[in-house]
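pipeline: protein-struct stage 2 | run 1193 | formate--tetrahydrofolate ligase
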Amino acid sequence: EVLSLLQEKNPAFKPVLAIIQVSRERGSIIDEILKINEDTRVHGLALQISESSFSNKVLNALKPEKDVDGVTDINLGKLVRGDAHECFVSPVARAVIELLEKSGMMSFRNAAIFYLLVFTHCIDLSVGVVSGCFSLKQRPPKLRRLLPLLCFPPSDIEISRAQTPKAVDVLAKEIGLLPDEIEIYGKSKAKVRLSLLERLKDQADGKYVLVAGITPTPLGEGKSTVTIGLVQALTAHLNVNSFACLRQPSQGPTFGVKGGAAGGGYAQVIPMEEFNLHLTGDIHAITAANNLLAAAIDTRILHENTQTDKALYNRLVPSVNGVREFSKIQLARLKRLGIKKTDPNTLTEEEMRKFARLDIDPSTVTWQRVLDTNDRFLRKITIGQANTEKGYSRQAQFDIAVASEIMAVLALTDSLTDMKERLGRMVVASDKSGQPVTAEDLVSMVLIFFQLPQGTPVFVHAGPFANIAHGNSSVLADKIALKLVGEEGFVVTEAGFGADIGMEKFFNIKCRASGLVPNVVVLVATVRALKMHGGGPSVNPWGLVFLQNIPLVADGCCNLQKQIQITQLFGVPVVVALNVFKTDTRAEIDLVCELAKRAGAFDAVPCYHWSVGGKGSVDLARAVREAASEGSRFQFLYDVQLPIVEKIRTIAQAVYGAKDIELSPEAQAKIERYTQQGFGNLPICMAKTHLSLSHQPDKKGVPKDFILPISDVRASIGAGFIYPLVGTMSTMPGLPTRPCFYDIDLDTETEQVKGLF
């Protein structure tokens, strides 16, 4: 009937099904699949392949729209969400689902989940329904226990919209803010004024807690969710004042593969749409300021290349109504040059040349343009190709906005004065004599406005990534929160990705800048990630490891144990928070907690905040409170006075477990230049993949005896760190084959955004 309807509109339409049959493992399977994917004559593709060829990589090579058996993650994901009308479902599976549904034994969605469990873990199986219970027969291996099927709670966005946030002025009053200390921004957000810190300067700080994690899967293991759940438990269930301090989400991962960063389930920041989409515009303001500076650099090079000294000087210091005078920024430049004159007409020719020419060496420009979008095609570009640029062109690149040094400055500053000084110190290039050229030589950074923490009892300020930046929310947010909660209260902040990246930078960079000392580290783990580290399949949105596998979890705990050891390097007690999923079994949960405590964790606690909110993290809150009372023996990992190479080597060996490091010629030259320029005493911010302790994302668990390659070294002098690039690390992420934005839409009737998670 469907075919007849289609052919009425297009008589020439003729559906074609292709079948690939492989009796033994062959490397060309994927090549054949890709050919058929692009063949417009073929509408459907079925695979008949051997067990040895059966892998996620092979199955997901299929285009979902040609996947007639519904084996790709995308079709399985739609099936498990109950969206069978939007995906392919194999005839056998559909028959099973319809029979189960018609028998009244289970809903369509749970039947779909049952099918997914069977399909992803069983080959050559038969299904029997006996007295309302499922019995599975599988040959081989021996079948492990099937988990009970649980009903799905509402989606994150449904939970968010079901809540009515307090009016922000009411909330501000509850947490001790005065009316003139906030600037209300809409109904649910407000900016907090810096005058608050002066008013509370004599108030004792509360306890300082960092949430870090094990080496994550591409989806993340729920550090934001744990942070929110812990704060809810402390405040609502233990009656302890507490605040969460989080980073602002970038649109890159929000529209890419990871999704939003508001937490999830009943432990999330609300309203999640406002949190995940633009917030109060900080990232866009940083983008504009960053790109203004980039434009100023290239424009200055162009004008210096095409004008004489005198013409350039006259345009930089023009006569207005017969009066010529320097601006304040220009007077500051004169002072840095040692020219003690304030009248533009009194400079000698040599002084005019020295003032007017920055003599930027184009090959040394390190300041890149930025965009808050994952766009792999901007990783290398050529600028200046229009005729109006008079032949001046050069290779350049875009970084993602949250990798901008301005974002790092915003996160690490402790006052407006400090921020202004840091912005001016940012090194953008070197001149032809090898001396640094800074932002204050080029442009005023007044375009950056100071966006202070806002939200409900969550302060959201700054959003640097942890793999290509230092990965922590702002120092100011933490300092304000620590004053507000009082001496017995808790401030819980989060460091991006695994403890080897975000936590290491929190201690060695953020704590150096803030002077704050953490009391406890909460290390987040999940059973699914541990199974991956134990040798299980790579975790993706719908190919989860559902069945109990004790040996796999035990083997994967090596990564958890290593991250505990990394935490202990800094002398801070660590509590492991096992973020429990519905598919985790009691045996797996108990095993992880036991191995974590054996590895030196102060305590290890399963957490259920995703499904029940703060109530599910009360045990974690008690463990954190007890650990905080034990005291911290905090110490830095290295002395900043060590040579740059030694500091890099210390992190590589002590934290990542590398045998040694290997510097590229370019990296070696940069290190020598920065040392000669006087920047050798800065801390290190490693830009490294977050998916492995090593530089290779596919190396899970605890890689050993590897050499860490340093391909390049850059300097963020305003932010106050040197950042080496490890391996092929890129500062502009790319989009996956199926980005999240396929699911994000606007409902024109309700005027609400759909598909965020």
